[in-house]
Amino acid sequence: MKASSVRICLTPEKEFYLIGYGNRYESRRQPAKGVHDDIYAICSLIEVDNQQLYIFNADYIEFEEASCNEIKAMLAQKYQLNPDLIFFSATHDHHSVMSYHKHWSTGIFDQQYYDSFVEKVEAGYLQCVQELQESEAYYGSGQCLGYYGSRIYYGEEADNEVILVEFRNAEQKTVAALCNWATHSTVLDPENDLLTADLAGAVRNKLAAGIGVYPAMIVGAAGDCSNRAYRQGTDFEELERCAQGCAQQILKIEVNQKLDLHFESCSTVTYHVQYKINDEREYLNAYREKYSLQLAAAQDAQARKLALDNIAQIDRKLQMQDVDLTLYSTIVKCKDLEIVSSPGELGSELGISIKRQSPAKCCLIFGYTNGYYSYILQPRLYQDSARAIGSKYRKEDVLGYMNVIEANL
């Protein structure tokens, strides 16, 4: 097998708007005030038995499915790549650029920036091809505790496992790395008006100093996981504290278990969701009233943000008429390594279940990948979480989607 990776800057060169948190905050209705730190894409190319897996891991909030398919088709045609082996993975950065996103609620789209983004996807692949080196794969896993956990049940862990995969050349130098963790990259306040890669970028920079290469920060099943219950602030000083603490724990992971990689298969499985929500409107309105009362009683910025988020979730569902969509997951099997992707924000218990069910020595969950289909949360959260109550999916839809995935592991 062979591997390589490159880092490409995605920071706009002209005026831009920040994405994340919708347009209910002034910071998203006006142009950004500047750049605190650049945003990047980590492009990783893994070649196993002449099959190339290309990962474009970017400091974006999400990817649109149509854009992913368009770029995949271009790369497949020009370079004979298997489009199912191309992964657009977002770190879910809520302080990133809006420019590339064609359908964000405020309608701010920059065709010039989008074209530059597409060019960088292709340039990243070509540079990776040039830098491919014969490699061996190693992995290790550990827990990152005290900095993030359940954002629904304060004090509970979510999926706090971190998996590191490193690809090392003949000199044992790491030429590419994947850090698979499960947390929202959201330390900063929504009113922040500076571009930044937030937690994922800050941790990545510190990991690079220890690993020797910038790892792709692959977010797994983080739909109900963040540092909301652990914050000591929402400024850049707090970001540094959290990044330092997370990086120190992750760098203690011993990446010494060798992976025997041989390409076996790549498949995309689907699950169709279709129903009407009219019968749920009374139920949803009751929850909206509950969260409106919480907003009225909010005493600080974090309580206000939480109430606003909850109301926004319910309002989005109330505005729906019918739900008719197809969820999907791409599963790549390479003997000791299995990759399972989802275009949504999987709940942590769902990610843990997939990893336990996988027969592979190492199973990586790629959330926020190749599209965005919102929150797909474990059934027990439907008792307490507006994210679950207001999501597009009923409990039976979540269970059906999981059954399809786990049946194909």
What attributes does this structure have?
5-stranded mixed β-sheet, alpha/beta, 10 helices, 20 strands, single chain
Question: Would you write up a description of this structure?
Answer:
By secondary structure, the protein is of the alpha/beta class. It has helices at residues 26-29, 65-79, 111-131, 198-211, 236-250, 281-297, 301-318, 348-357, 386-389, 395-407; strands at 2-9, 34-35, 40-48, 51-58, 86-90, 133-134, 136-143, 149-150, 161-168, 174-181, 194-195, 216-219, 225-226, 257-259, 265-276, 322-334, 337-341, 345-346, 362-366, 375-376. The strands form 6 sheets. It has a 5-stranded mixed sheet, covered by helices on one side. The chain has a 5-stranded mixed sheet with strand order 12-10-9-7-14, covered by helices on one side. Strand 3 and strand 4 (51-58) form a beta hairpin. Helix 6 (281-297) runs antiparallel to helix 7. The chain is globular, with a radius of gyration of 20 Å. The model has no long low-confidence stretch (mean pLDDT 95).
Could you say which structural class the secondary elements and strand pairing correspond to? alpha/beta
Q: What is the overall number of helices? A: 10
Strand content: 25-35%
Q: How would you write the strand order of the largest sheet?
A: 5-4-3-1-6
